[in-house]
């Protein structure tokens, strides 16, 4: 619905007489909205699945690196406090 509004597809079915927008339900439901063919929709969905999987893997790697850095930081602090290294 938001995409239709921002794409100005359903603007014709919006009536504004008193400063408040009203939706002409009959005009709204008679609007023609283009959709890609099923094969194209499936290829887009498959592409998005692959790309989000890559992003998820990168996020896991970053989270692992953050955890290792936190452990390293804690080890450095412990070593400095116990006198094992000189600061």
TrEMBL record:
Residues 48-79 form a coiled coil. InterPro entries: Restrct_endonuc_typeI_TRD_sf, Type-I_RE_S_subunit. The keyword DNA-binding applies. One of its GO terms (molecular function) is DNA binding. It comes from Candidatus Roizmanbacteria bacterium GW2011_GWA2_37_7. It comes from the Bacteria. Transmembrane segments: none annotated. Keywords: Coiled coil, DNA-binding, Restriction system. One of its GO terms (biological process) is DNA restriction-modification system. The keyword DNA-binding applies. This is Type I restriction enzyme, S subunit.
